[in-house]
Design a protein that fits this description.
Elements: H1 23-37, H2 45-54, H3 62-107, H4 112-129, H5 131-154, H6 161-191, H7 200-242
Helix pairs in contact: 1-3, 3-5, 3-7, 4-7, 5-6, 6-7
C-alpha cells in the first residue's frame, strides 16, 4: 500500500503513533515512505490528496511531501524535454526524408553541371542564411541528450522505457556520425569546386562520386532519425498514459 506504511512489527503510520514510541520506528517508516513514493506517479498534489482520501490513507509527513514535490517537478521537466526532443528529431527526420524522396530524385534528372550547381546552391543557402535549420539540427541533438540524462533519474531502470530512450539516442548519434563523416565533407568538397572551369568528364566524375556517396549516407541517417523520432513518440505516449 502506498501511503499507509507499516513496519515489520505491524506499527501504525507515523501520524497514528504516540510520541512515546521509539524514534527508530519513525525513521524506519520515513525510509519506507520514501521507497514507495517512486512506485506511483501523480500529476499534482491534488491528485495525491484525492488518492489519500479515496483510500483512507494517512497524509505524508512534511519531509516526504517535499520529496513528492521534487519528484513531481522532475517529472514535468522530463516530459517537456521529451516533447521537445520528439518534435525536433521528427522535424530533422522530415527534412532528410524530403531530401531523399523529393530533392535528390528531382535534381537527378539534370545534367551533370546543373545537378552539381543545383545542389551547391541548396547547400549554400543552408550554410549561409538558414539559422532555423541549424537551430533544429543542433537543438535536436541537445534535446535528445538532455532527455536521456533526465531519463536515468526519472524512468524505472528495470522497465523498458529507459532502454527505448537509450536506443533512440544511440541511433540518433549514429545518424549524426554519418552526417559528420560523409555528408558534410562531400558538401564542402562540392563548395570548393569551380564548376565553370571543369570539362564534361570532370563534371561527370564528380557528379557520380558525390551523388552515390551522399545519397547512401543520407538514406542511412534518415532511417536512424526516423527510428529515433518514432521511439520518442512511443515513449511520450507511454509516459503521459502513466502519469
Amino acid at each position: 500500500n502506498f501511503l499507509v506504511v507499516r513496519d515489520r512489527q505491524g506499527q501504525l503510520p507515523i501520524s497514528h503513533r504516540s510520541h512515546s514510541q521509539p524514534h527508530h520506528h519513525l525513521a524506519t517508516t520515513k525510509k519506507q515512505d520514501k521507497m514507495v513514493l517512486g512506485k506511483h506517479k501523480f500529476h499534482n498534489t491534488n491528485n495525491l490528496i484525492s488518492y489519500q482520501k479515496s483510500s483512507n490513507q494517512a497524509p505524508l509527513s512534511n519531509q516526504n511531501l517535499n520529496t513528492f514535490h521534487a519528484m513531481s517537478n522532475l517529472s514535468k521537466v522530463f516530459e517537456i524535454s521529451l516533447l521537445v526532443a520528439t518534435y525536433t528529431t521528427a522535424t530533422v527526420f522530415g527534412m532528410m526524408l524530403i531530401f531523399a524522396i523529393v530533392v535528390m530524385l528531382g535534381i537527378a534528372n539534370l545534367s551533370d553541371a546543373n545537378f552539381l550547381g543545383a545542389f551547391k546552391a541548396i547547400d549554400t543557402v543552408i550554410q549561409t542564411s538558414q539559422p532555423v535549420f541549424f537551430l533544429f539540427w543542433v537543438g535536436s541533438v541537445l534535446a535528445q541528450l538532455v532527455t536521456m540524462g533526465l531519463g536515468f533519474a526519472e524512468l524505472d531502470k528495470k522497465g523498458f522505457k529507459l532502454p527505448l530512450l537509450v536506443i533512440g539516442t544511440l541511433l540518433y548519434i549514429l545518424g549524426q556520425f554519418a552526417t559528420a563523416r560523409y555528408n558534410i565533407p562531400l558538401n564542402n568538397r562540392l563548395q570548393d569546386l569551380d564548376l565553370d572551369d571543369m570539362d564534361s568528364f570532370s563534371l561527370n566524375t564528380e557528379r557520380v562520386y558525390f551523388e552515390a556517396n551522399w545519397n547512401r549516407a543520407n538514406v542511412f541517417r534518415t532511417w536512424m532519425f526516423g527510428f529515433t523520432a518514432a521511439l520518442n513518440a512511443v515513449l511520450l505516449l507511454l509516459t503521459n498514459s502513466t502519469l
